[in-house]
Design goal:
With 345 residues, the chain is α/β, with parallel strands linked by helices. Helices cover 29% and strands 26% of the residues. The protein folds into 2 domains: 188 residues, Metallo-beta-lactamase, Chain A; 137 residues, Rossmann fold, CATH 3.40.50.10890. The protein binds zinc ion.
Length: 345
């Protein structure tokens, strides 16, 4: 296998041949040939660096909307792109199934290296599962790599949500659903819209802006209105409604405010992979939690490794050391968490 240098220094660095590529940076670029941004969540999308950025058109749009700026040099890529890095090295891109425009990247020299930012294998109401191309070296995200971490069937969660929403509306209660503004809130909008069968879902302005980007790229979210728009206040007073907000603003104050405004009891739920922990609900003052994750659970992470079938694995995020040990023991594959390196200034 050709020499591949993988290390973490303010982002994941992969050196193949004479080229260095920086993945999902959270520091200034220091001489990498290319900078790949896997998706628009801000812990993966520092665009303050110099250099040539690679990202999907969807991610570029999301980054611009969230940060109000773009990096100086962006090359848009998609799953048909075959990027020539140098005479002997190319890059290709694969669907990550995480959020709108989320990609994995493969660097191919005499050795192939697959990098994943966040990814998931469960199909959702919006997106399919991550692709699993074969690679010699796999650099993978392991956010939920704790043994025993298991996510329920997504369609069962959707059914539970629908039932919970309909029951509360039937009892004349407003329903507020909270999740990450980017990714989860769009899925919640679609779930609520399907549940309401044509009536509008009322969404926070931050969610509305991101919803529009999803729809611009052809992802249908159903009928929704911006809560800051002129018709929303009257609409919310006319009868029990379903709202979608970023979980960061979910809390007692929000529910009480809506209750006073609409003179109607208001209940809240939070949707996240972290909702499997009861203290997560308390943090947001939510009555219900729905375990709906855009990552893989423990077994899905193992399934991903099996399908990619690498000879070497590097893990990052979450319980990365524990998962690397699991890979070594279970598959007999060389595996370790990504070593950290301080680059010279
Ligand atoms: Zn993410």
């Amino acid at each position: 296998m050709c020499c591949v240098d993988v290390f973490d220094s303010g982002g994941i660095n992969v050196g193949v041949g004479r080229k260095n590529i920086l993945f999902d940076p959270h520091r200034k670029n220091k001489g990498s040939d290319f900078v790949f941004v896997s998706h628009g969540h801000l812990d993966h999308a520092n665009v303050n660096s110099e250099g040539k950025y690679l990202m999907s058109a969807e991610t570029a749009q999301v980054v611009k909307a969230r940060l109000g700026k773009e990096p100086g040099s962006v090359q848009l890529v998609d799953t048909s792109t075959r990027l020539k890095v140098d005479d002997s090295t190319t890059m290709r891109f694969f669907d990550a199934g995480h959020i709108l425009g989320s990609f994995q990247a493969m660097v191919e020299n005499s050795t192939s290296v697959l990098y994943t930012g966040d990814f998931k294998l469960q199909e959702s109401v919006l997106f399919g599962r991550a692709e699993t191309p074969s690679a010699d070296v796999l650099v993978m995200e392991t956010t939920f790599a704790t043994p025993g971490c298991s996510f329920p069937d997504r369609n069962e969660v959707y059914s539970e949500m629908e039932s919970w929403i309909k029951t509360n509306l039937a009892h004349d209660r407003n329903v507020i659903l909270g999740g990450y503004a980017l990714g989860k809130s769009q899925e919640l909008t679609r779930i609520a819209s399907d549940c309401l069968g044509g009536d509008a879902v009322v969404v926070h302005p931050q969610v509305a802006g991101l919803n529009r980007i999803y729809e611009d790229f052809g992802v249908k979210l159903g009928n929704f209105i911006d809560s800051s728009g002129p018709e929303a206040r009257k609409y919310c007073k006319s009868g029990p409604f379903v709202g979608v907000v970023p979980s960061t603003i979910l809390g007692k104050g929000l529910k009480q405010g809506i209750r006073i405004d609409t003179k109607r009891k208001t209940v809240a739920a939070v949707a996240s992979g972290w909702a499997r922990f009861s203290n997560y609900l308390k943090r947001f003052g939510a009555e219900r939690g729905f375990v709906l994750s855009d990552h893989c659970d423990f077994n899905q992470l193992l399934e991903f490794v099996e399908e990619v079938n690498p000879r070497k694995v590097f893990t990052h995020h979450g319980n990365s050391a524990v998962f690397a040990k699991e890979i070594r023991q279970r598959f007999g594959i060389e595996a370790s968490e990504i070593p950290k390196k301080v680059l010279g200034s």
